[in-house]
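Dear support,

We are seeing what looks like truncated structure output for some complexes. This example has two components. We would appreciate it if you could run it in full and send us the complete token output so we can diff it against ours.
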Amino acid sequence: MKSGGVSRVLLIEDDPAVREGLELALTRHGHRVRAVDSGEQGLDRLRTDLPDVVVLDLMLPGIDGFEVCRRIRAAGETPIIMLTARGDDIDVVAGLEAGADDYVVKPVQPRVLEARIRAVLRRIGRDQAELERHGDLTIDRAGLVVANRGVPVGLAPTELRLLLELSGTPGRVHSRQQLLESVWEHGYFGDSRLVDACVQRLRAKIEDDSAAPVYVQTVRGFGYRFGPV
Amino acid sequence: MAPWPSLGLRARLSSAFALLCVVTTVAVAGGIYVQARNAILQRTQDAAVQAMMSRLQALYPLRSPAPDRAELGGIAGAVSDGNVFAVAFHRGEHSPAGPPPERPGAPVPGPPPEHRRPGGAPVLDLGVISPQLRRTVAGGDVAWQRVVWRDAPFLIIGTPLLITERDRTTRSSGIEVYVARSLLPEQRSIDGLAVRAWLTGGAALAFAVVLASLATRGVLRPVRELGRAARLLGEGELRTRIAVRGSDELADVARTFNTTAAELERHVEQLRQMEADARRFVADVSHELRTPLAALAAVADVLDEEAARLPEPAGRAARLVSQETLNLTALVNDLIEISRFDSGVAALALNEVDVAELVHATLRARGWSEAVRTELPPGVAAPLDPRRVDVILANLVGNALRHGEPPVSVRLSADPHRIALEVSDHGPGLDETVLPHVFDRFYKAGAARARSEGSGLGLAIARENARLHGGDLTVTNAVDGGAVFTLRLPRRAHDPDGGPE
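Here is the complete output from our reference environment:
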């Protein structure tokens, strides 16, 4: 994350017209855009440019968007916003499972994409609070570090924000709609699969057994709750 | 209509068969009966006349031309025997006649002993000889008549005794002899014949009825099969075929049915294929349009924001391009949405949500909270896909605000099984001719409204969304004016959590 408002966006999109259009629009919104036309180039640029956010088309020649998504996630915690051309549910779910933080459906209005980028880049407020302990999990709200049995856990920004949101009020049930508003800034009618997919990824990283979660628990029909541990 | 509207084919065929059989049996059996009866009687009659004549021959020559009562008794006795009663007349005189026997011939050999004169002939009651017969006999002819005497049939034969002169001419001697012969044995054999005829007729009738029912079943089974197949075909089971048996007219009908069904199936298949092709084409076109639109949409904002700084008419052109890009984007998005409904890939993401909260969120997100009156009882929750319900509500409220008159209101009501959301305005309402079509795709309320805001798919998509929930969306005009759209959604908890848990 970069301070000062100007962020570096890595745009991976194979269609030249869309690429140019989005580059134009995002540049106008004050971002420094690096646009490439394939996943291979994108992964190269990721290492050299260290972008703040990746905007990734799922339908790519060569290695496809899902694979690129997984490799970016494996390499670090850079936020990823998917561009899905088809709006197909399968694509969205697969993309979220591959580690994407959010998605927009083409044709996208630049101001919508801009809002998504701002949301994933929003600086997480640092508290002066003490180190929180929940069972084996320690959450350092000042240093933004989460550790499980003393071992730091690498969380993507969205995952971290979701964990901070839930653990801020242990035992309280958060509906998917509330989480979409507070974590994704989507508003009431966001896609609740974003929450579900993010919870899955978060559990895989902090729970001993994802099938029997201790920290992030499902309240059937209502939403999610942290603990009580 | 049919002459016998209440009778089925089976009853009609059976009764026709039975009738035919009865008529035939009666004709054949009756004919044979009558002929046999006549033959028997004729033979009996001939034999009786023959026997009588030969006995009378023995009397010649007559002892006196004017016999007295005793002599007449002798004549009568000569032609009598156990079976035959006789009486002889001459002028007013006649041989002794007994009272009629109680049951003549009951014991076939003869009348009871008390009616038999000792050593003489059985006697005949004179009353059974009709005057008509007597006149005929008196005229010189041999005559006979069948009578019923004391409940038993008798043959009465009368003959005048003739005297042959030396010149070989004959003249009546004036003596008439009558004999009565019981026909009881013949009556019995004729009765036996009748009984056999009836039995044969009855058996034939029973046989005919069985045969008729077999035949009708044989005819009716294919007919019933045809009926069942036609019904199945009508219900949309286009693969229905009939097994063709034999080569009769019914088999022809079955073959025709099969050919027709095959044709129908082929045509329907063709139509479905064409429709599927058309829909796939729309889906493909929409997807193809997406990429260029994505590029256009990306720069439309830029163009719009720069429009103010451009010299006219470039500025207006830029605004137009920007605006139409947005419209086109909405249209293509709607086309893609509806083609997803058509192809069945649209999926529900159900969440147990507070309906009032959802409606408020919809209104708030579009800045309509002030413009719309709400009647939303709190605490009503239902398993809904919030995004889809938002699409429906946004469409209904948006239409009401654009086309109707204020106040626009949203009212929620609920029972344990369903919720109902009513969106109403106070405008003039919808034309009655328009009402059935408001949910049609691209339906335009009037030719004049060439293009309205929105894609023309909004209400169609809204209804598809309602149906995807297992609910429905309907429209009526309120009594006091204004259109009322009612969205009904089920509250049943099939899966209360749409999440992947």
